Amino acid sequence: MRDRLGRECLYVPSCRLGLYVALRHWCPPGGRVLMSPVNDDVILFVVLAAGLRPVQAPLDPRDGSLDAAAVPEETWRGLSAVLTTNLYGNPDPAPALRARCDRSGIALIEDAAHAIGSEVAGRPVGTFGDAAVFSLSKHTAAKAGGFLAVADPGLREALAKSRDALLEPPRRTAELAYWARPYAEAAVRGLRLAPAAWAVLRMLGRQERADIRMPLRPDALGRAVAAAPALDAFHSWVRVDLHDYRTDAGGPRRARIGRKLARLDDVLARHLAGTRTLLASPWARPGPGPVQPLFRVPLLVEDRDAARAALARARIPVGYLYDPPLDDYAGAAFTEPSPAPEAARWFAAHALPVDPLRADRALRVLAESGTRPARGGPGGV
Questions:
Q1: How far apart are CA 135 and CA 142, in angstroms?
Q2: Domains of the chain by residue range
Q3: Which of 42, 113, 185, 281 shows a CA-CA span of 20 to 30 A to 238?
Q4: 301 in helix, strand or coil?
Q5: Is residue 93 reached through a cis peptide bond, with omega within 30 degrees of 0 on the bond before it?
Q6: Residues of the chain with pLDDT > 90: what percent?
Q7: Strand 297-300 vs strand 351-354: parallel, antiparallel, or unpaired?
Q8: Which residues pair with 82 in a beta bridge?
């Protein structure tokens, strides 16, 4: 990854842990961080755990990217950092954000979990910020691992020390579960046992989201915020869907991640082909810029839940839904609301993130189920 990005890279067991390390390094406790309201709720809790105040930004309703031009001047004042999302791999306007952060003297941190193969202005996403975090469990399907890329290689030692202070040692049970998971998932798919499997996971407390968002638990969250910065106080929120997020990987796991990563370019080529197919469909509203090898393609449909159900019946899962936006989900007690929330609400309600590797089959299901494209949108988009 150092060769790919031209930046020093530090392995972390998860993108969320790498983000926490970056936020603690570049932002003083109590600082304000501009971020996207259409994002995983885990990221909101990582920002809070770092002792920071999330500030929700306006979005482009076509692809959910940050609308830098729509951020009011008063919002810029007093920020400590900007955190991009690059939602589904669609790049945020990193050059404009970099220029604004430089004028304001604040850090730019890129969350590139969905964007390991995306580019903007001829450069890879993750090469504009003071730091960038990547996930190796997305395009590579490694189911673990990530890395923190930094502009200043002289910071690597200090960041590694911060990471190591947060790591938990490898556990034999975690390593066995990691190796067994692909075989268990294949068996579930082959035997068509997915509904029963999810029911068992819920019964055992391992399926922690009954709906798109996890329960906020505001009273407990308020106590955690009072203790921040402290990752342990937020453990029950930050660990959701990834209990090993701060567990160091054993040698065999790292070796498997390395083998998966070695095939990244082939995977990205397949994602790019599927993305082009999906963007040519009647449900797509491509955003600005060239086509990217998207992790998921956000088709905009009139009835998102009905379309999701139709795909589920065809055994095509739809994840990575972020509805409602974080300011509506968390409220003013835990975040500063967006000054222009309409675009984020519309996008979150209508976006159907489709895996480009299943493009042809997904499009057939949507056509056969009578799925209609979303109508209208903020600003006539």
A1: 9
A2: 2-166, 170-207, 258-371
A3: 185
A4: strand
A5: no
A6: 80
A7: antiparallel
A8: 34, 108
Cβ-based burial of 131 (10 A; exposed 0-12, middle 13-18, buried ≥19): buried
Name the CATH topology of 258-371.
Answer: Aspartate Aminotransferase, domain 1 (3.90.1150)
Please, which residues have CB within 8 angstroms of residue 84's CB and are 6 or more apart in sequence?
A: 36, 66, 92, 94, 97, 108, 109, 110, 111, 112, 129
Write the pLDDT tens digit of every residue in 161-189: 999 999 999 766 665 555 555 545 445 44
Residue type at 371?
Answer: T
Would you list the DSSP string of 175-229?
HHHHHHHHHHHHHHHHHT-HHHHHHHHHHTT----SSSSPP--HHHHHHHHHH-S
Check: CB of residue 7 under 8 Å from CB of residue 126.
yes
The angle that helices 359-368 and 264-279 make with each other, rounded to 10 degrees, is: 30
Residue 47, token pair as written in the block: 């920002």
Lookup result for tokens 């990987």: 249
3-state class percentages of the chain: helix first, strand second, coil last, to nearest 5:
45, 15, 40
Q: Report domain 2-166's class.
A: alpha beta
Q: What is the pLDDT of residues 205-225, one digit of tens each?
A: 455 777 899 999 999 999 999
Q: What is the pLDDT of residues 37-73, one digit of tens each?
A: 999 999 999 999 999 999 999 999 999 999 999 999 9
